[in-house]
Each structure stands twice: as C-alpha cells, then as structure tokens.
Amino acid sequence: MNLENETDIGKAAESPGLPPLRFSELLEKKVILQDWGEYEDFFRFSSNVGKIDEGSVLVKVGNGFELIQGFPKIKRAIMLAPALKNHFKDIYSVAVEEKMNGYNVRVIEHKGELVAFTRSGHVCPYSSERSGHLLEHDFFKDYPEYVVYGEMVGPDNPYVPKDIYGVDSLEFFVFDIRSREGIALPLHERRELASDYGFTQVELLGEFELGEAADRIREIITELGKKEHEGVIIKDPSMILQPLKYTTSQTNCADLRHGFRFYNESGKDYLFARVVREGFQSVEWNESEEEIKDRCLRLGESIIRPMRESILRVQEGERIRDDVRIRVKDESTIDRFRMYLERLGLDVIFSPLERIGDEYVVNIRKMNKSTTDKTLGIIEGQLWS
Ligand code: ATP
Ligand code: MG
C-alpha cells in the first residue's frame, strides 16, 4: 500500500490531525516513514511533530488509519529529595516501581497477530514473535483500543542482554497500559488488569507519602544497587503527573563499562551524563571518605578497564564487537530479524542456528568498526584529531 493518491493521503492525515499538504510534505522529508515488506501498514514519525511524539506510529486499519502515540520521555531526578518535592508537590503519595533494564516495546494486535514496536516506532520482527508467545492474546481481543508497554528483559536479548534478573531467556515485563492516544491507565487499575490476564509485570516496590519518599527510595536504591539492578521509576498513582526516574550508581557504572568498550561509538552525552549523576548522588547521600573512595574507584574502573580490554584486543589483531543472542520458535524470524538489523545499518554476523528443544538459538556478533578502526589508527601512531 503506498500513499500515492490524494484520497489515501487525506485519510492518513486525518488521525494525527494534520492537513493533507503538511502530511505529504512530512512524507517527502522522511519525517514520516513507511515501514517495509510485510510491515507496510505502519508509518513511523522519526521526529516530534506538534503534539505527536517521535516514535509514534500510524497504522492502516481497514479503510482508515489510527495513530499510536510513542512512549513519552521520562525525566530524571538527579538530586532526589528536591526533585520529588518539586515535581510531585500537588499529590500526597508516590508509587515506586522497579526500573528494569532491557528495551522498551509497545504491542498491539494487527490482523490477528501481535506486533511489537521499538521506542523509535520500528516494527521489530524478533520482539513481535516473542510478544506473540509471551502475552495473552485475549487481552488484545477484549481491549483492542489499548496498547501494552513493557520492558523486554533477559539474556536472549539483541539490544540489552542482562543476566541479573533470573530470567532464563526473555521476558516481557509490563509497565504501562495506554490508550492509542497515549492516555495511561492509573497505576493500580493497570496492575490489576495486567494481573487478570496473567502478564508478568515490573515490581511495585512501595507507595510512600511524599515527605518520606526520598528516604525510602534511597534505601530501595541501595538494595537494588547491590544486585546491579537499574533503579526505580517514581509515579503519580493516578498517572496524571509524568513519572520520574532515578538510578543506582552500579548501573551507571555498568553503562560506562559497556560504553567505553566501544568508546568511539558511544555518544559523548550518554557517557558524560553518567559521570555527572555520580557527583550529585555522592553529595546528596552525604558520603563518608571511605564511601567516596569506593565510588571513585568504581567509576574509574568502569572507564579504564573496558578501554584497556578493547585496546589489547585490537593489539592482538581482533576486532571489537558486541556478542548477543536471540531465541526463536519460528525459523523465519531469524532472516527477518537479520534484514531488519541490516536495514538499520548495523554490521552483524549471525552464527549457524542451534536447535534447543522446540526453539532455535542464534548468536549475533555486532561489529564495532568505528572503535576498531580508531583504536588501530592510534596504536599505529595516528593523532587524536
Ligand atoms: P527516556 O529518557 O527518553 O525516557 P531512555 O531510553 O533514555 O528514554 P531510560 O533511562 O532507559 O530511558 O528510562 C526510561 C525507560 O525505562 C522507559 O523507556 C522504559 O523502557 C524503561 N522502564 C523500565 N521499567 C519501567 C517502569 N517500571 N516504568 C516505566 N518505564 C520503565
Ligand atoms: Mg532503558
């Protein structure tokens, strides 16, 4: 289906509320992009357009179109106590959910199949297949107007593999249910509904009066940090105010360890922000000299050790890469996923598939050409700029 004639464009422009001419212009400028192959019914917004968030998706449904809002950005508290006081000043209590470290997907049913979109609004063939096995389909029959948001977590994860959650393969942890326009269900209503359909959910760690919340969250964060878990999302139980996020020092350091292995590919803002957070947390928590020393050591090790490993690797003639793994039931998902990654511009090598029970496991090597080349240059005497 291509939006070539005026009738189609007129119909497509209706749901996001854009004038047809503006819609055509956005298509031309590739701000609105049609997905490809079997996913031609989906058009994603590659940047914000008025009130439509980046990552929103326009879906062709029957003769018309429907807009599915993207997942809104969650702002971060850097100094917890004053941030909570400011942000949630008009409410009595806040709910604290675990922030799980995986990747964000949103799922709808389309033509009888579950379809999973990544944050940017791409249909991910792997996540779609997994969601199809992990989520109860009846939910989507009973509530076709709702979108289920969750974190895909576990080791069989092509984007953010983690072994820290006791998940064997990959699990879908629901953290939000929203209407297609993006209106979130209140937290307790959402948790109840998710539980009615047997969905796995992020953990609710407590609900606290505003006055005591910062202290309670600090205790929670200290415990989560010991397990290298990521942190918390602090929510208005009615889901009217926007949530805030707050993370553990250990997860900042884990991000830095990963980021510095591929130092030439990691965004500088991404790395810098993680260092700044450490400074503020150390002051807010009024740390002793010993705690400060520990933090300095942890931070420094997360930067220097992974870089040393990368440099040594290249010196030994190896190329820098990130190894991940997927597990599928349907063999055809592997090729579809490979094509998807290649279209995103990733340089990937897929291992031969291995059959385990009724599933297939494939190792994927994501090559970091830029960091490899930069490192090779430097050890051969190239100057930094
Ligand atoms: P942004 O800052 O734009 O929200 P990001 O990818 O930089 O996005 P993160 O720092 O990972 O964000 O924090 C937000 C993400 O946390 C959400 O997009 C979601 O995928 C994830 N998340 C994990 N657990 C939860 C939860 N309990 N509630 C809401 N989001 C959660
Ligand atoms: Mg995340």
Descriptive account of the structure:
The chain is α+β, with helices and mostly antiparallel strands and 385 residues long. It is built from twelve helices and 17 strands. Helix 1 (6-14) packs across helix 2, helix 3 (80-87) crosses helix 7 and helix 10 crosses helix 12 (369-379). The longest helix is centred in the C-terminal third of the chain and has 27 residues, at 289-315. Adenosine-5'-triphosphate (ATP) is lined by residues 71, 73-74, 97-100, 104, 151, 175, 202, 233, 245.
Which key features would you list for this structure?
single chain, 385 residues, alpha+beta, Nuclear Transport Factor 2, Chain: A, D-amino Acid Aminotransferase, Chain A, domain 1, Methane Monooxygenase Hydroxylase, Chain G, domain 1, 3 domains, 5-stranded mixed beta sheet, 4-stranded antiparallel beta sheet, binds adenosine-5'-triphosphate, binds magnesium ion
Summarize the structure.
The protein has helices at 6-14, 20-28, 80-87, 125-134, 137-142, 187-196, 210-226, 249-261, 268-284, 289-315, 332-343, 369-379, and strands at residues 32-34, 42-45, 57-61, 64-68, 75-76, 93-99, 103-110, 113-118, 146-153, 171-179, 204-209, 231-235, 244-247, 321-328, 348-350, 354-356, 359-367. The chain has 385 residues and is an alpha+beta fold. It folds into 3 domains: 6-68, Roll (Nuclear Transport Factor 2, Chain: A), CATH 3.10.450; 75-247, 2-Layer Sandwich (D-amino Acid Aminotransferase, Chain A, domain 1); 249-315, Up-down Bundle (Methane Monooxygenase Hydroxylase, Chain G, domain 1), CATH 1.20.58.
